[in-house]
Specification:
heterodimer, A: 111 residues, globular, B: 116 residues, mainly beta, seven-stranded mixed β-sheet, four-stranded antiparallel β-sheet, 0% helix
Chain lengths: 111, 116
């Protein structure tokens, strides 16, 4: 029940395309859903986050879509660029709880 | 630069040995988290401390222990090391423990442990 399942494991997108990464959770107590971006040799860094009281949040080219009834959320990267090539982790936590991460998606954006 | 410092960056040791990983959180952050990252397990939460006290525990083995000192730095001790303990160990910090819809974890660059 504490798991966050993420797919796909890897993703190859052409420059200018849309990258979509999906996550699903079981624990209805989760109320904070961030996405972290990790470049090789670096630690993960917060990219964007959403609360369950909104269905979408957009920051620049990055958008989180949230479906509370389906217990799913996804990250959309519009106009994907080679500089977006990184590993992306979805995560979830409940009030005062630990942050549980998905398995990660390795994104490669081809020029 | 996240402001979180981890040492050492790389560590190679043998099975059965014991190592200590050190983490200095961002200035002002009271909460420290330890995560293990391996290829097949992703980012696994190990343990969290807040202002010197253990706050939450994850999938941390009994061979592993951690503590947070009065100056807020933290150490993760790994003993009786096995080949499967080879991984990247990340420390992260936050101002306060994550509270639902707020909070950002700031990660260090990790300590890569190789057990031969």
């Amino acid at each position: 029940q504490q798991q966050v399942k993420q797919s796909p494991q890897s993703l190859i997108v052409q420059k200018g395309g849309i990258s979509i990464i999906n996550c699903a959770y079981e624990n209805t107590a989760f109320d904070y859903f961030p996405w972290y971006q990790q470049f090789p040799g670096k630690g993960p860094a917060l990219l964007i986050a959403i609360r369950p009281d909104v269905s979408e949040k957009k920051e620049g080219r990055f958008t989180i879509s949230f479906n509370k009834s389906a217990k799913q959320f996804s990250l959309h990267i519009m106009d994907s660029q080679p500089g977006d090539s990184a590993t992306y982790f979805c995560a979830a936590s409940s009030w005062g709880g630990k942050l549980i991460f998905g398995q990660g998606t390795e994104l490669s954006v081809k020029p | 630069d996240s402001g979180v410092t981890q040492t050492p960056k790389h560590l190679i040791t043998a099975t059965g040995q014991r190592v200590t990983l050190r983490c200095s959180p961002r200035s002002g952050d009271l909460s420290v988290y330890w995560y293990q990252q391996s290829l097949d397990q992703g980012l696994q939460f190990l343990i969290q401390y807040y202002n010197g006290e253990e706050r939450a525990k994850g999938n941390i083995l009994e061979r592993f222990s951690a503590q947070q000192f009065p100056d807020l730095h933290s150490e993760l001790n790994l003993s009786s090391l096995e080949l499967g303990d080879s991984a990247l160990y990340f420390c992260a910090s936050s101002v306060v423990p994550l509270q639902g819809n707020t909070g950002e974890l700031f990660f260090g660059e990790g300590s890569r442990l190789t057990v031969l």
